Amino acid sequence: GEKQREEVGGADEECVYAAVGKTKVIEHDYSGLELLEQSFHLRWTHDSKIVYDNKKDTAKKYQTTKNGSLLLENLQLDNAGTYQATIYDNLGNHMKSTVTRLCVLGKYRTHKQYRKQGTECVQIIT
């Protein structure tokens, strides 16, 4: 039996793993973004809180790469969770959403895994 994957926000999404202190790029699936240059609206959320919005300077908690992927530097355990990229065209029409679940691994090998409300999985150092 194949696993069914929901398009947005499914609890069965695979985790992307990264270690504490590392740099991680969260990709989006929209390959044509660079061609649109500034005529698009890109918003990134982390557990539904806006962490990057190219139309609002105040919302830029993180940097992005040239193609709009989210750049997370010096990862910490609280960076874990669900990241969503939403792309609109210059008229405000929704074009694409990409959801990525990030799990952050602690520095030690012994850790427990738990999920909070089905959206986060955080590695706890014990």
TrEMBL record:
What Gene3D superfamilies does the record point to? Immunoglobulins
InterPro entries of this UniProt entry?
Ig-like_dom_sf (IPR036179), Ig-like_fold (IPR013783)
Name used for this protein in its record: Immunoglobulin V-set domain-containing protein
Question: What is the species listed in this Swiss-Prot or TrEMBL entry?
Answer: Hucho hucho (huchen)
